[in-house]
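Recap from last week: sequence in, structure out.
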Amino acid sequence: MLERIGAALAAGVNWIQIREKDLETRRLFGLVCESIAISQAQAPQRDVRILINDRADVSWAAGAAGVHLGENSLPVRELVHARGGSDRPDFLVGASCHSPQGAVDAANHGADYVFFGPIFSTPSKADFGPPQGVTKLAEVCHVVTIPVLAIGGITLENVAACFDAGAAGIAAIRLFQQMPDWGNLMARLARACRRNR
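Predicted C-alpha coordinates:
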Protein backbone atom coordinates (compact mmCIF):
# COMPACT_ATOMS: atom_id res chain seq x y z
CA MET A 1 0.00 0.00 0.00
CA LEU A 2 2.81 2.44 0.81
CA GLU A 3 4.31 1.83 -2.65
CA ARG A 4 0.93 2.63 -4.22
CA ILE A 5 0.62 5.80 -2.14
CA GLY A 6 4.10 6.87 -3.25
CA ALA A 7 3.25 6.17 -6.88
CA ALA A 8 0.00 8.13 -6.60
CA LEU A 9 1.81 11.10 -5.08
CA ALA A 10 4.49 10.97 -7.76
CA ALA A 11 1.76 11.03 -10.41
CA GLY A 12 0.21 14.18 -8.91
CA VAL A 13 -2.68 12.83 -6.82
CA ASN A 14 -3.53 15.47 -4.18
CA TRP A 15 -5.81 13.57 -1.80
CA ILE A 16 -5.24 10.02 -0.56
CA GLN A 17 -8.04 8.34 1.36
CA ILE A 18 -7.01 5.42 3.53
CA ARG A 19 -10.01 3.09 3.75
CA GLU A 20 -8.58 0.32 5.95
CA LYS A 21 -11.57 0.25 8.29
CA ASP A 22 -10.84 -3.24 9.62
CA LEU A 23 -7.14 -2.75 10.29
CA GLU A 24 -6.12 -3.00 13.94
CA THR A 25 -5.70 0.47 15.47
CA ARG A 26 -1.95 0.36 16.07
CA ARG A 27 -1.25 -0.88 12.53
CA LEU A 28 -3.59 1.72 11.05
CA PHE A 29 -1.86 4.45 13.04
CA GLY A 30 1.53 3.28 11.73
CA LEU A 31 0.24 3.17 8.15
CA VAL A 32 -1.14 6.70 8.42
CA CYS A 33 2.09 8.05 9.94
CA GLU A 34 4.18 6.44 7.20
CA SER A 35 1.81 7.76 4.53
CA ILE A 36 2.13 11.29 5.89
CA ALA A 37 5.93 10.96 5.97
CA ILE A 38 5.95 9.82 2.33
CA SER A 39 3.72 12.73 1.28
CA GLN A 40 5.96 15.23 3.07
CA ALA A 41 9.10 13.77 1.53
CA GLN A 42 7.76 13.41 -2.01
CA ALA A 43 5.57 16.47 -2.34
CA PRO A 44 6.67 19.08 0.21
CA GLN A 45 5.50 21.99 -1.94
CA ARG A 46 2.07 20.55 -2.76
CA ASP A 47 -1.09 20.67 -0.68
CA VAL A 48 -1.34 16.89 -0.28
CA ARG A 49 -4.05 15.63 2.08
CA ILE A 50 -4.10 12.22 3.75
CA LEU A 51 -7.64 11.40 4.89
CA ILE A 52 -8.80 8.43 6.94
CA ASN A 53 -12.14 6.63 6.69
CA ASP A 54 -14.22 6.78 9.87
CA ARG A 55 -11.34 6.70 12.36
CA ALA A 56 -11.24 10.30 13.55
CA ASP A 57 -9.18 9.26 16.57
CA VAL A 58 -6.41 7.74 14.43
CA SER A 59 -6.54 10.58 11.92
CA TRP A 60 -6.28 13.20 14.65
CA ALA A 61 -3.52 11.43 16.60
CA ALA A 62 -1.40 10.76 13.50
CA GLY A 63 -1.68 14.34 12.24
CA ALA A 64 -3.61 13.46 9.10
CA ALA A 65 -5.48 16.16 7.19
CA GLY A 66 -8.92 14.90 8.12
CA VAL A 67 -11.50 12.17 8.35
CA HIS A 68 -14.03 10.90 5.83
CA LEU A 69 -17.37 9.74 7.22
CA GLY A 70 -19.88 7.32 5.80
CA GLU A 71 -23.61 7.78 6.23
CA ASN A 72 -23.55 5.43 9.25
CA SER A 73 -20.48 7.00 10.88
CA LEU A 74 -20.35 9.49 13.73
CA PRO A 75 -22.53 12.48 12.77
CA VAL A 76 -20.67 15.22 10.92
CA ARG A 77 -21.80 17.89 13.38
CA GLU A 78 -20.17 16.04 16.31
CA LEU A 79 -16.75 16.10 14.68
CA VAL A 80 -17.15 19.65 13.44
CA HIS A 81 -18.06 20.71 16.99
CA ALA A 82 -14.98 18.91 18.37
CA ARG A 83 -12.79 20.54 15.72
CA GLY A 84 -14.10 23.98 16.73
CA GLY A 85 -12.64 23.65 20.21
CA SER A 86 -9.29 22.29 19.07
CA ASP A 87 -6.01 23.64 17.79
CA ARG A 88 -6.67 21.99 14.40
CA PRO A 89 -9.15 24.30 12.64
CA ASP A 90 -7.86 23.02 9.28
CA PHE A 91 -8.82 19.39 10.08
CA LEU A 92 -11.15 18.34 7.26
CA VAL A 93 -14.42 16.55 7.85
CA GLY A 94 -15.94 15.00 4.74
CA ALA A 95 -18.99 12.82 4.23
CA SER A 96 -20.35 10.32 1.74
CA CYS A 97 -23.86 11.15 0.50
CA HIS A 98 -26.27 9.28 -1.72
CA SER A 99 -29.01 11.90 -2.17
CA PRO A 100 -29.24 15.67 -2.62
CA GLN A 101 -30.79 15.97 0.85
CA GLY A 102 -27.93 13.99 2.36
CA ALA A 103 -25.48 16.43 0.79
CA VAL A 104 -27.44 19.43 2.08
CA ASP A 105 -27.56 17.93 5.57
CA ALA A 106 -23.81 17.27 5.57
CA ALA A 107 -23.10 20.81 4.39
CA ASN A 108 -25.48 22.32 6.96
CA HIS A 109 -23.73 20.38 9.72
CA GLY A 110 -20.34 21.77 8.70
CA ALA A 111 -18.82 19.20 6.35
CA ASP A 112 -15.93 20.61 4.33
CA TYR A 113 -16.72 18.49 1.27
CA VAL A 114 -18.95 15.59 0.19
CA PHE A 115 -18.55 12.52 -1.95
CA PHE A 116 -21.70 11.93 -4.01
CA GLY A 117 -22.61 8.76 -5.81
CA PRO A 118 -22.57 6.25 -7.15
CA ILE A 119 -22.71 8.27 -10.36
CA PHE A 120 -22.25 5.28 -12.65
CA SER A 121 -22.63 1.53 -12.16
CA THR A 122 -19.87 -0.05 -10.08
CA PRO A 123 -19.60 -3.26 -8.03
CA SER A 124 -18.07 -1.47 -5.01
CA LYS A 125 -21.12 0.80 -4.60
CA ALA A 126 -23.90 -1.66 -5.49
CA ASP A 127 -25.17 -1.67 -1.89
CA PHE A 128 -25.99 2.05 -2.20
CA GLY A 129 -28.60 1.59 -4.89
CA PRO A 130 -28.76 2.27 -8.61
CA PRO A 131 -26.45 4.82 -10.23
CA GLN A 132 -27.43 8.43 -9.56
CA GLY A 133 -26.26 9.77 -12.92
CA VAL A 134 -24.74 13.11 -13.88
CA THR A 135 -28.08 14.96 -13.77
CA LYS A 136 -28.42 14.21 -10.06
CA LEU A 137 -24.73 15.08 -9.58
CA ALA A 138 -25.38 18.48 -11.16
CA GLU A 139 -28.33 18.98 -8.81
CA VAL A 140 -26.16 18.25 -5.77
CA CYS A 141 -23.41 20.58 -7.03
CA HIS A 142 -26.06 23.30 -7.38
CA VAL A 143 -27.65 22.94 -3.92
CA VAL A 144 -24.45 22.99 -1.82
CA THR A 145 -21.58 25.46 -1.77
CA ILE A 146 -18.93 23.01 -0.52
CA PRO A 147 -16.90 20.91 -2.97
CA VAL A 148 -18.64 17.82 -4.35
CA LEU A 149 -16.50 14.90 -5.47
CA ALA A 150 -18.09 12.38 -7.83
CA ILE A 151 -17.62 8.71 -6.97
CA GLY A 152 -18.74 5.40 -8.39
CA GLY A 153 -17.87 3.92 -11.77
CA ILE A 154 -15.64 6.83 -12.83
CA THR A 155 -13.69 6.10 -16.02
CA LEU A 156 -11.65 8.14 -18.47
CA GLU A 157 -14.63 7.96 -20.83
CA ASN A 158 -17.13 9.53 -18.38
CA VAL A 159 -14.99 11.72 -16.11
CA ALA A 160 -15.49 14.83 -18.26
CA ALA A 161 -19.25 14.57 -17.73
CA CYS A 162 -18.67 14.70 -13.95
CA PHE A 163 -16.62 17.88 -14.20
CA ASP A 164 -19.15 19.33 -16.62
CA ALA A 165 -21.88 18.69 -14.02
CA GLY A 166 -19.93 20.82 -11.53
CA ALA A 167 -17.90 18.25 -9.58
CA ALA A 168 -14.82 19.70 -7.90
CA GLY A 169 -13.04 16.38 -8.28
CA ILE A 170 -13.43 12.63 -8.46
CA ALA A 171 -12.73 9.70 -6.17
CA ALA A 172 -12.00 6.30 -7.67
CA ILE A 173 -10.67 2.86 -6.92
CA ARG A 174 -10.80 0.82 -10.13
CA LEU A 175 -9.71 3.74 -12.30
CA PHE A 176 -6.38 3.87 -10.47
CA GLN A 177 -6.01 0.13 -9.98
CA GLN A 178 -6.51 -0.65 -13.65
CA MET A 179 -4.27 2.07 -15.10
CA PRO A 180 -0.60 1.01 -15.11
CA ASP A 181 0.70 4.51 -15.92
CA TRP A 182 -0.63 6.88 -13.25
CA GLY A 183 1.27 9.85 -14.68
CA ASN A 184 -0.58 9.48 -17.98
CA LEU A 185 -3.85 8.98 -16.09
CA MET A 186 -3.40 12.20 -14.10
CA ALA A 187 -2.54 14.15 -17.25
CA ARG A 188 -5.71 12.90 -18.95
CA LEU A 189 -7.82 13.68 -15.87
CA ALA A 190 -6.36 17.19 -15.73
CA ARG A 191 -7.21 17.75 -19.40
CA ALA A 192 -10.79 16.58 -18.78
CA CYS A 193 -11.08 18.95 -15.83
CA ARG A 194 -9.69 21.97 -17.71
CA ARG A 195 -11.89 21.29 -20.73
CA ASN A 196 -14.99 21.56 -18.57
CA ARG A 197 -14.08 24.64 -16.50
